[in-house]
């Protein structure tokens, strides 16, 4: 049985800040941001967008009525959860109008959450081949103003429909994975900003990739020559390149050129959005599929997922016949082109807007937000969501 990605949706907020201008304001050489870490623009979520609305907007464009009936499981991968008890998936379940007999849960393991959800979805479809699973990877990366991690912030979500009719990518059965209890990145429950040991995290990312890649080769017998491209989890776009370079000598010059070229293409969207944690790997995959028009069906794509703390996994997928027909290239081009640039001062003001924590009522002007699904306010400690299309 084939199991894999039938549909992919993506959403990012309508505001962004230019990294060149942010660098100037922070008294940093712009090349440190644009070349050193490889970021051009950073998505800025207004107060009317959170991890729930980002995910719901990403899914809204791809989930049709037939999907709503067939989806019997919604798995929300995030490390920007809005409630310690209630799953963010329940809110999305309601906002999309999914089948009431569909389960909805939230999973967490740093940036690995969406990959964990996909692996769970594969098992579910294997047992229920007529059903579908909605997988969501949605996050807002926050480190704080004037911090070392500020330039690697971002916001966005990727939604995937996993089924036994994988029109885009069939996920192959075997994968390699690794878990280790380390403190390279974390966010205690009392903090709305993450803590990171940047140098250590970079080292662990590459170490995990090296160990998992060796395990994957041993398990499958596959090598670089068998991969058309490798997509990486991208906390910033230079990170994946550092890992990729560690294995390029294993292939021919042709392998090296192919993988480097396709890697660069796979970072296009991430470079203009920033870090979206659980969705970053799948935004990279989406960028590759939509921006490289001559990827051949039958090509094998490698995927490296890493979630600090840490869990990593390497797995692969096979591009399906006519897969481009099921992508949303024009819609995503419009999403990017319709965004509004804000000044650094405007970005700082938006960043510091927060929701009340004392149970008071607040209402937001959602007409300023072009998204179809928004956070409209809070009442009695409950977030209020609106789907403008209902």
Automatic annotation (TrEMBL):
Active-site annotation: 79, 111, 233
Domain Hydroxymethylglutaryl-coenzyme A synthase C-terminal: 261-352
InterPro entries from the UniProt entry: HMG_CoA_synt_C_dom, HMG_CoA_synth_N, HMG_CoA_synthase_prok, Thiolase-like
GO molecular function, one term: hydroxymethylglutaryl-CoA synthase activity
Keyword Transmembrane helix found: no
Name of the molecule in the record: Hydroxymethylglutaryl-CoA synthase
Lineage top rank: taxon: Bacteria
Entry keyword set: Transferase
Assigned protein family: Belongs to the thiolase-like superfamily. HMG-CoA synthase family.
Protein's organism: Virgibacillus oceani
Transmembrane segments: none
Any Gene Ontology biological process: acetyl-CoA metabolic process
Residue ranges occupied by any Hydroxymethylglutaryl-coenzyme A synthase N-terminal domain in the UniProt entry: 2-165
Residues involved in (3S)-3-hydroxy-3-methylglutaryl-CoA binding: 143, 242, 275
Pfam family of the protein (one): HMG_CoA_synt_N
